[in-house]
Design goal:
With 383 residues, this protein is an all-alpha fold. It is built from 11 helices and 3 strands; from the N terminus they run ββαααααααααααβ. It has a 3-stranded antiparallel beta sheet with strand order 1-2-3, with no helix packed on it.
Length: 383
């Protein structure tokens, strides 16, 4: 339904949130930050067998599946009241302000991150960094020839933005094509995408990649995207929710345990690790999302935890990596062992959360409120 406003405008009424899904998104975002902080202390750079929170990269796949489920819930029954352009505007208002802020923070911190671990930084002039930042505001990827850091990232000022680039692609595919699929055709798409995902995980020994603008990495990113996103959509369409008590805490425990699992198989049998990744994405994550959507937060503490974690989840994910670049440079420049870095890791996590909360309250929420009034509300004579 639409909500009529006193000035003659209208806006689709928001639906109630799945509070536990919001909370889990925040849990995953915190685990991503810890994963990236511990990553700087890796000694096995080839197989990552000694990585703490070893499967933290799977949080991206979890985010994709959550997004597919929530997109189905929010929009599947609204296409008679909403145009394609209306959908695009709603998604841009929700996501784009923090994309801009993430790139701006990346640009501000860039020259403070100077280290040999970022081989292209020393030769990067200011004008080139500003150009990359400006392009980053649009979320368009940059080619490796414009890589100002030397890590072959399509968004070298804020690496995790690659997953938002693929998120936008998924939204476009859903709005233009896949929303029209029957459940049968959607199931076929998800099955084929699952086969491709299993092959990729088994071949690589993990499900890592997707952040470089070349054919191989784009293929990895697309494979990472299609099964979880449209699998989440299918789960929403077919899932018959139950009633599960304490779902937030059980689901949080399952999620943290799944992504904290040590490397499976070691360097010799590394493909077993890939099969574990595929099992998490195809079996564990749908189960967690189903349980979370079936639960309710009935006590005050759980409700507040889910609200806070859900609110900071996206700002935390999209702003933490410039701080991680800074931490990694400090770690590398000073040759700090992990045992001595642990207090700094804890402090950096607190800083990342505080920065995310400040961005949310001082920038994201006010800007989105302003954009909703200017962009989403339509005057009656435009209907």
């Amino acid at each position: 339904m639409s909500t009529s406003l006193s000035n003659g405008t209208s806006l689709l009424a928001p639906k109630p949130h799945y509070a536990i899904l919001d909370g889990l998104r925040g849990v995953a975002a915190v685990m991503v930050v810890l994963f990236h902080l511990f990553e700087g202390s890796l000694s096995d750079r080839e197989f990552h067998t000694d990585q703490i929170i070893n499967h933290g990269y799977l949080c991206v796949d979890f985010f994709f599946m959550l997004s597919g489920f929530v997109i189905g819930y929010a929009y599947d029954d609204r296409w008679g009241k909403m145009s394609l352009w209306d959908f695009c505007k709603r998604r841009l208002v929700r996501l784009q302000p923090m994309v801009v802020m993430g790139m701006l923070i990346g640009g501000i911190f860039f020259y403070f991150q100077d280290s040999e671990i970022y081989p292209a930084m020393a030769s990067t002039p200011m004008w080139e960094m500003l150009l990359v930042m400006t392009i980053g505001f649009t979320l368009l990827p940059v080619p490796t020839s414009m890589d100002v850091r030397g890590w072959a990232e399509m968004h070298p000022l804020n690496g995790p933005a690659w997953s938002l680039f693929f998120e936008y692609i998924a939204n476009i595919l859903y709005a233009t094509v896949v929303r029209r699929f029957s459940n049968t055709w959607l199931s076929i798409l998800v099955f084929l995408a699952g086969c491709a995902l299993i092959h990729q995980c088994f071949s690589q020994g993990n499900n890592i990649g997707g952040w470089t603008l070349d054919l191989e990495q784009l293929q990895i990113g697309a494979t990472r995207l299609i099964f979880p996103f449209f699998g989440g959509l299918l789960l929403f369409r077919l899932g018959k929710l139950a009633s599960i008590r304490n779902a937030f805490w059980w689901c949080s425990l399952m999620l943290v345990a799944a992504i904290s699992m040590p490397h499976v198989g070691g360097a010799e049998y590394f493909r077993l690790n890939g099969l574990y990744d595929a099992f998490c994405i195809i079996v564990i994550f749908p189960l967690i999302i189903f349980m979370a959507a079936s639960g309710h937060t009935k006590d005050r503490f759980s409700s507040k935890a889910c609200k806070f974690l859900g609110d900071i989840s996206y700002p935390l994910y999209i702003t933490h990596y410039p701080i991680v670049y800074l931490y990694t440079a400090w770690l590398y420049n000073n040759k700090v062992p992990l045992s001595q870095a642990l207090p700094v890791i804890a402090g950096t996590l607190v800083i990342c959360i505080a920065l995310a909360y400040a961005c949310l309250k001082l920038y994201d929420e006010p800007v989105r409120d302003w954009l909703k009034k200017r962009v989403l509300m339509r005057t009656s004579h435009r209907k």
